[in-house]
Design goal:
Number of helices: 4
Largest sheet: 6 strands, antiparallel
Strand content: 15-25%
Distance between the termini: 33 Å
Shape: globular
Amino acid sequence: MNKLSYKIMLFLLVGLNSCTGEGYKNIQFYNYSDSKYNVEKDFLQVVSTTTDTIPSKWKEYAVSLDFMDDKFIYFQNNPEEILRVNFTGDTTQWSSTNTCNISLFGLFKGEKWMFYHDISSDEKERIKKRLETEILSKMRHSYTKED
């Protein structure tokens, strides 16, 4: 699947899911009391020093839609997977507010992206714990959680 096909498929998935009345659920929200710029800088620094580089076999799946601020975190083992997180909120507000949110959005384990409704509650807890333990706890910014 090429990048354009993947973007179209994801756009349709998000759009169709929004039409169901349920909206598109994130697995977990993390709230920060600092600007998006500062939190993102801290987040990206931790990711770059503590995680592996996405291998070429999975690069085409780690592509963000142009209107989303997605970040991809690759873990090589235990298990091998990519976590997809994004900064949520209105980008026009990010420059004038001292709060931001990161959401855990999806999981890729080599076949397809899995989102809120695709993942068991045990698996959600496992990936939340992994994100919190291996990335968020190493940031200088602290967060509060919101399901």
